[in-house]
């Protein structure tokens, strides 16, 4: 790593002064974020409006004692600790410290310059204290847990004023199946800058560590396929094997038609597993995985609308374990066995609905009420929102994430590239061979295509 540059605690260049001024205004309740990077602005919005973190907090709180993660994640945390410890000498030469946290933001271990560690201890930047965003605001560890790429938090970009002398860079290692964070690797310097190469180094460290999870996930996929074949030999009903994220490892031809995916096509590698375009099915599979992880004897069932069906179909979930570790469920169609899953609109409340969406325009954060958004379109890794304020980049990382956030708020996935606000559909155009196009109510009367596999869900939603 390059030589570190020491900074006086009271000195601020023009860029830092601009960020500090925006921080002061935002803390007072204003929304003027000129000069603030979009990812920082979005984090500040979470800290102020969602988590309500005190910007004048001077130390991190004690982490809760409960540890709740899969056993295989211990291996990942240990490997990450090895990488952090191996960097101790180099980071110490920078006057910095390196830490690892678990998925809750709890600091597990720390290495580096002893003088910096002494300063860090005054802010509880030490083992067994919590640095999640909801506890201590914008910081390298907590904000990394909310991001899919390495993050850099410079001085006044921290939400809490007491941490404005720090510069931190962190990256989250994520489960390759669920995409949930497992741990964070973070490097921090006090009153100094980190080298420009730190982001690349962190990203590479995360990729190397995730190899362990990827290899385990492939073994899990093979075990799910074996469980599917065993169930296939004993039953004539339609079957599918799904992982804890609701993605399909293998389905027979009938189940493939019902789910809108290729049948009899194995996909043990998590990178290529099939995603049914049935949000209700995915939510049920994710719920079933959580229940089975808590209780290995759990079996459950529910009803969903499948592709090409006008009536709901019963499905049941049978958990599959490998060495005591849940790898997914075998789903049987037309079967109702075990505990009933909760249904939205039934005897359990819906998930909390988002009050607004967050987008970015240049260096500003734009807070949108849901009725202002007509539809969202994916373009590679970006998601664009078409709104009453024009075309804006969404803060959500990916259309799948946006779909999950909005599925109970009147938005529907109608195509691989589109999620639409049902209340903003003005007309439905039917073309040759039955293709549907949705005419939105924006000025351009934008026409959004409906994929064939999503047509039944659109017809049900619009009652046509």
Automatic annotation (TrEMBL):
Pfam families: LytTR (PF04397). The lineage of its organism: Bacteria, Bacillati, Actinomycetota, Actinomycetes, Pseudonocardiales. Signal peptide: none annotated. Residues 357-464 form the HTH LytTR-type domain. InterPro entries: GAF-like_dom_sf, LytR-like, LytTR_DNA-bd_dom. This is Transcriptional activator of acetoin/glycerol metabolism. Coiled coil: none annotated. GO terms for molecular function: DNA binding; phosphorelay response regulator activity. It comes from Saccharomonospora marina XMU15.
